[in-house]
Amino acid sequence: MLDEDPFATAEQQQLDELSEAVLDEEVQRTRSDLPVLHEIIDELSEEVAQRSCVGLIVVDTVNLEGWERRHGATSFATLMARLAEAAREGRGDTIRSNDRLCLNMPGGDTLLLFLSQPRDHSENSVSPSLAVEDVMARFERQLFEPFSAAKLTFHEALDSVSMGSAHLLYNTSVDPRREIYRAIRRARADAAVNFEEMQRRRQRVVGHMIAHRKIETMYQPIVALPQRQIVGYEALSRADEADSDELGVHLFVAAARAELDGELDQACRTLSVDRRPTIDSEKQLFINCLPPTFFEPNRELNQLVDQWLADGHDPGQFVFEITEQISYEQALRIMPAVERLRDQGFLFALDDVGTGAANLRLLADLDPDYIKMDISLTQGIHESQRKQDLAQYLLDLANKSGARLIAEGIEKEEELDTIVELGIELGQGYLLGKPKPAEKWLQER
Q1: What is d(CA 133, CA 355) in angstroms, rounded to the nearest whole number?
Q2: pLDDT in tens, 269-302
């Protein structure tokens, strides 16, 4: 444990400055270079008049105002840049070479995709309206796919992104520029309707999944890097493929929107322990927990702990993962249960540390046995001195507090090499092992 309250020292300021520098660097790296509407409006007007521009799809983030206030302008800019990057990468597939992609305005909150014609594969068998709907569905999958391994913060944002469409039908008595602006308004109105229907559908799906335990449990290895030896597994829960396609966003994000995140958290935690791979005396099981897990009266938590001990496992093999994104008030509320479990020998990890408003007071009070370095800090660390500096700072902080640092999200050999050179001894990520069901790990023993 840290000897003094670091929240009141220069250490907190130093950590905040390093974190902010990394965020700023990420924004610069991913900054969108898309044109804005006013720059191409005249060319678009000619295409509308020539009937070579026939449809519009909008990707609207108007519902993200609250999210941006919580996570900051840099996070919003990163989100928009990553959406734009995913859109550009779809050229030649969903997006044709003569389609036009732009932002609604400088620093805008809406991506605009103007569709050329013809869109459909068989003009005699598919109506134009169905063709546009099909393009929009494929475009949504293309935009969201790169976020599959992103931190939960971005999945929360995607849940509030809406999409809509409109046709551009030129009237010779109307200025085509006004037709474009009117089409944008119609498409945004369509996006608002689609958003409400999408939320209702997600609530139905996630409720059914929880009730019927239609949840896949995967286990990703945590590896001692010098020996490349598995020392534990983190349990991860996800929807099956069919339900995942219908949800369109992260399972826990959909549950939180439906106010079923507590029920889902309990179900996933129980299934994660019940379905676990063989945990010998040298390995640990890491289980993610929302803060209410530790609120009184803790009946489900007590049952889980009792069962773990009854199965003959050592309490030191069970690691509760708590996200750093909890509020300080929540942290104070969970401390009695945390201290009781710690007295029994159970261990704790503080997750998602490294970017954002890192809180050293939370670190000092929770006194975690493990600190998990945020995935966004790991990605591209070999190309960023700022990320390396922040990782080194977190490693020194972990050593000072008696914790062990785990680098999450390692996907490239260059990232692994840099992390090892920094002296970080534990890692996790696709390069070291992808999440698999327990039976797959048993087969590889």
Answers
A1: 38
A2: 999 999 998 888 889 999 999 888 898 888 889 9
Dihedral of alpha carbons 286, 291, 292, 294, sign: positive
Name the amino acid, one letter, at 202.
R
Domains annotated for the chain, with CATH where assigned, are: 6-17+213-443 (3.20.20.450), 32-201 (3.30.70.270)
Alpha helices, DSSP H, located in 60-121? 65-71, 73-88
Reading the block at residue 313, the tokens are 């496992």
Of 139, 61, 156, 56, which Cα lies nearest the Cα of 94?
Answer: 139
Give bridge partners of residue 167 from the DSSP assignment.
Answer: 55
Which pLDDT tens digit goes with each residue over 304-318?
999 999 988 999 999
List residues bridging with 427 in a β-sheet: 223, 407
Structural contact between residues 387 and 419, judged by C-beta atoms closer than 8 angstroms: no
Cis status of the peptide bond prior to 277, with omega within 30 of 0: no
- 229, burial (CB in 10 Å: exposed 0-12, middle 13-18, buried 19+): exposed
Closest to 6 measured CA to CA, from 284, 364, 340, 384: 364
Whole-number Å distance between alpha carbons of 367 and 339: 10
Q: Kindly report the length of the chain.
A: 445
Q: Measure the CA–CA gap between 370 and 349, rounded to whole angstroms.
A: 4
SS3 171: coil
Evaluate the CA torsion angle 393, 394, 399, 400 in order and state its sign: positive
Say if residue 297 is preceded by a cis peptide, omega within 30 of 0: yes
Query: In which order are the strands placed within the sheet that holds 100-103?
Result: 100-103, 110-116, 53-60, 162-167
